[in-house]
Amino acid sequence: METTMTHEYPKGVTIDDVWAALRDLTQSQKETDRMMKENAEEWEKLRKERAEQQKEAAERQKEADRVKKENDEEWEKQRKERAERQKEADRKKKENAEEWEKQRKEAAERRKEIDQQMKETDRKIKEIGNRLGDFTNSFGNVIEHLVSPDLQEKFKKLGYDFQEASTRHKIIDKKNDIRFEIDVFLQNGDTAMLVEIKSDLSISDMNRHITRLEKMRKYADLRGDKRRFLGAIAGIVIGENERGYALSQGLFLVEPSGEDYEITPPPGKPREW
């Protein structure tokens, strides 16, 4: 027996309503699928963007790590360089300290040597001072020897007969501002000899003696003294230059000769004042 089933729709709902509902459902499913597809694409896009961001973040981290490593290496390099410079500075400081100590010791030794030299110099000065008195006495004896009759005799052999001799002869004329002293003054009626004596004769000594002779001429003229004046220079130590200069200026030269002394006249005619 064949049974036929019938479907009863709710009251008031027709078959068209059912088909319309099915169409709506199908449309909703399509919309849902579309939205799910769009969401999937959006998600994939977001996933890719996130992956790209993570990649970029990883690259930045890698770069940061690289920069940090370089900075660390540079810092370590600078630290080592600073350590080397400090080590070098300490070495130089030590060397300078050693050099300063060496110089200090050398300076102390020099001061010690200088002190010893000064003591020795003081001793020699004192010794020279003691000898100076003896030399002064000896020099006085030389002057006395020069004014002895032997000196007058030596000049007499040269054609000059001096009857009078004096030492440390002073000439003073306040009115005409003439003042000088003659070590040895030999004279006669028409000629006078002015002798200057120096232990160590110099050219400046001779120039001063020439000036002294010029003053003598002026002094004599003011008094009507018509005598001629000659010059002589005597020295214990006379160099070759000084010897030649004295003779070239027309002066007689009195110099030691063994245990005696001799008088050398200037070449040609002696200079007269």
Describe this structure as you would to a colleague.
The protein has two domains: 15-139; 147-264, Trna Endonuclease, Chain: A, domain 1 (3-Layer(aba) Sandwich), CATH 3.40.1350.10. The longest helix is centred in the first third of the chain and has 132 residues, at 15-146. The mean pLDDT is 85. α4 links the parallel β4 and β5 (252-257). The protein has a six-stranded mixed sheet, sandwiched between helices. It is an alpha/beta fold and 273 residues long. It is built from four helices and six strands, in the order ααβββαβαββ. The protein has helices at 15-146, 149-157, 203-222, 240-248, and strands at 164-173, 178-187, 191-200, 228-237, 252-257, 260-264. The N and C termini lie far apart (197 Å). It is rod-shaped and about 195 Å long.
List the helices and strands and how they pair.
Elements: H1 15-146, H2 149-157, E1 164-173, E2 178-187, E3 191-200, H3 203-222, E4 228-237, H4 240-248, E5 252-257, E6 260-264
Parallel strand pairs: 3-4, 4-5
Antiparallel strand pairs: 1-2, 2-3, 5-6
